[in-house]
């Protein structure tokens, strides 16, 4: 059944013309003898994929005949060792896919320095087939730009998933460690196909029980399933665990007994899981315990865990998402205020994991001001794959453009003089013992968020990207077929942040549905416009956080009575009869000052700010003239309505694509788009009705009053 279980690894039979044109490259498969589990996984994936794609079994051979497909490393395959392949720069995870000659016979090699590189190359090779590329003159080299490419599961030990919309947790804790659901292997295959190399199994709002012996054994069982696929397991750690599951009275990071407790705990974990990845920690945020409970800094807390993990090669991912109960400042400023001054104080196996924007995974936020501002602390990106603020399971919102927008953002921060910038003649200053260029404007030099994340801007020795997973026990894994694209685009961009959201969408469509151009063009366009549509019908012009409090589903801009100011959407839009928007300029909260001066200048200026961030940074009168010539009120109404129109256009596109899609997946998307259309109208009508009442403005001519 086309229930979405196979994700993008469907391996449907390719058209006859493609098969006959490329058959000569796929006569036999030559894999290493006595393969490691990883090489066996690569061989089996190829057999499975080729069987499906070619509609026939491909012979497994020991010798390389004409048209052989060879896989292996120089160590595992004398044939690969005998080829002069450019493996030097590929590191531990990279690979080559090459058209080669062996004894005068044309063949194809998938080779790497390590077994996992071979597996990654195998998935790439299968992708070439799935997207119908010709298999001639292949000279592909690829290696990841980022070291840690991780999913973060917000899965609770009771099986529920925080902000999960795809059913219960995949981890069946009750049956683990003895029963290993075959689905765990399919999960690992899907991740390996993207190059995802780690997974944090449990929620950041965690229970200390995840560190008890029983759960360590369960985690070890999952680690064993994932290991051949290059996926390490990590756990979220609760800072107060020494008190809750140890017998200590404090979790103070300066207390030697606490430090010893963590060392012993970490030793215990590594005994069971020798390649355990490390800890993810949410501390002193939204009620979670942390070092500040004892008057210690985030750095002291992180470094204590780092000390325990270091001898084993593990890392700490300390989250910068801090959100206090009492926050006298603008909420958007808290993370920068708390963490930027700690730059240089973290141990070398700590990474600071920063959400893409300063508040919380909104449909649109400016990039987080910490990016570029901590040259001595490796910053990891945290994206949200699950659609907490984007319509949960049903709304079709492809987040590729959101990720791309953030990665491409120019931080305009001065960069270390490495790489491309190094040759240029620039004045320099010394800071933190390093040289920076000191140009008035450091914009346009490629100091993008992507260059922060891949470590090249500041020469980070550790790099990482995390995505809050959208995976659960639903047959289709992600709550909808189109949500699978968000898992996919996350993984592809984690491997290479310079890929485009559009090309990834096309690739995913070809693998998931069909490579027919007519289908791919129309469906990709629909996907590429979907995120802007959601911005328009939910929170246009830089508005944010107007969703219903707690559940975050549907509009509630009127909520104002909750005890903590930031729980109320009115805190974020600040609308009254005179105007709307959050003043974050120097006259307001001055959050703009957390950005590099050129960015602060741009965001702080009404004239220069890109309009999509307008009300994030400015409080403006309703009759303020926008770039369209419409006054602000009318522009707001226009955008809400445009969002609804875009969803209706998506419905029309999908209806036209019916001939290309099987009935099951067609119907799911069709009915989900109906839900989205109804809810886009709900968003528009409720928001306009509310802002009209607050502002006293009249509906512009030609706009129908809300039903
Ligand atoms: C958001 C989300 C919470 C989550 C938190 C976090 O606020 O709504 O459910 O725990 O982010 O990232 O820690």
Automatic annotation (TrEMBL):
Active-site residues annotated for this sequence:
286 (proton donor), 360 (proton acceptor), 388 (proton acceptor)
Top-tier EC class: hydrolase
Q: Which residues form the Glycosyl hydrolase family 67 C-terminal domain?
A: 479-702
One Pfam family here: Glyco_hydro_67M
Cellular component terms per the entry's GO annotation: extracellular region
Q: Which GO terms describe its biological process?
A: xylan catabolic process
- GO molecular function per UniProt: alpha-glucuronidase activity; xylan alpha-1,2-glucuronosidase activity
The residue ranges of the Alpha glucuronidase N-terminal domain are: 7-125
The UniProt record lists the EC number as: 3.2.1.131
Q: Which UniProt keywords apply?
A: Carbohydrate metabolism, Glycosidase, Hydrolase, Polysaccharide degradation, Signal, Xylan degradation
Q: Which ranges carry the Glycosyl hydrolase family 67 catalytic domain? A: 129-412
Tell me which family the UniProt entry assigns to this protein: Belongs to the glycosyl hydrolase 67 family.
UniProt-listed PANTHER family: ALPHA-GLUCURONIDASE A
What is its quaternary makeup? Homodimer.
Name of the featured protein? Xylan alpha-1,2-glucuronidase
The source organism is Microbulbifer rhizosphaerae
Q: Please name the taxonomic classification of the source.
A: Bacteria, Pseudomonadati, Pseudomonadota, Gammaproteobacteria, Cellvibrionales
